[in-house]
Design a protein that fits this description.
139 residues, mainly alpha, 5 helices, elongated
Length: 139
């Protein structure tokens, strides 16, 4: 007669199967990046469809790349071994995505204000702003 499996072993197997089905670490990163994207877009509504697409891409990329950099820099790899550690890493990934869209939006606003400037105008402005050598004035 076969011995019955304990309920904790069955629950552990079910948990492992659910973890695999959700994508494991990739699922945590994707979920955190998705939540960061939703929060950013609710707080800073995009003005057009193209801005919406840029917001989505920038937030997801900054979540995943920024989160990976923080995990690498702080040597948090061993946190992956436990559920609570994975949740904490998901929080790191989420937090790294929040400033992504704001920074990209600020860069695009600065570029838009200087749309008619050529490279020499930009260099002159940079010298004036950050105190580099003044050089000769352009005519």
């Amino acid at each position: 007669m076969a011995e019955p499996a304990s309920s904790s072993a069955a629950a552990g197997a079910a948990g492992a199967a659910a973890w695999k089905a959700a994508g494991g670490m990739a699922g945590v990163a994707g979920g955190a990046a998705g939540l960061a994207t939703i929060v950013v877009m609710l707080m800073m509504r995009p003005r057009s469809a193209s801005e919406w697409a840029v917001a989505l891409i920038c937030t997801v990329v900054s979540s995943i790349a920024g989160g990976a950099w923080v995990v690498q820099y702080l040597d948090l790899h061993r946190w992956v071994d436990g559920y609570v550690g994975m949740v904490a890493i998901g929080g790191v990934i989420f937090a790294c995505g929040l400033p992504g869209w704001a920074l990209v939006r600020a860069v695009f606003a600065a570029i838009e204000r200087r749309r008619s400037a050529d490279i020499l105008d930009l260099a002159d402005e940079a010298r004036r702003r950050w105190g580099g050598s003044s050089g000769k004035k352009r005519r």
